[in-house]
Amino acid sequence: MGDIEKLEKPLLIVANHTSNWDSPIIGTAMISCKLSPVYFITKDSLMTAPVLGGFLRLFGAFRAHKGEGMETSLIEPKEILENGYCVIFFPQGGRLAEFKTQEGRPGAAVLALQGGYPILPVAICGMTSVNFKDFFLRKNKVKVVIGQPFFLKNRLADDFFDLKIATKIIMGEIEALLTQKYVKRPKDSVFWLGQPRTRRRAGAILKS
Predict the structure, then answer these.
(1) Total number of domains in the chain
(2) How confident is the model over 169-185, as pLDDT tens digits?
């Protein structure tokens, strides 16, 4: 893609999920894309905690509503998108060190097809080997690769929306960014967080 500053809200941001840091890392990258604030799903146990839940809401978190059915779990992100904001989805579900395209969940596909929202694929590289101490001491590099936004309905037959196929397409877009993580990306589509204190790439700077 070209200039990420031309991205417009609302967007469904989809990414791989390897750590608890993934949502704030993507949120930091989206500030430079002028897409903030972004909202993200968080475990019910964290959101219902008296103090922590309120703190997380300040940063854009909302409940997963696990076990209550897809219709209930998608109410809040649907409202956020309808209000013109961006939502982060991790279609693989829980945190996994290895990304597998065949294990995607259909929530993002449902919202994209029902609301006609564009999808922005993102890949986070370098988080599987990071621990809290090394991250704060800036001993690791984390790379965020932003892909090309697309409309899911344009990838499917007009008269046949298969959620399994739609979800696989989304997962494939993320996987493509992960498998190309060492390939030079277009201008303004790559962000680095980590050592040294600031890193410049494609005209964008993020402080770790």
Answers:
(1) 1
(2) 999 999 999 887 544 44
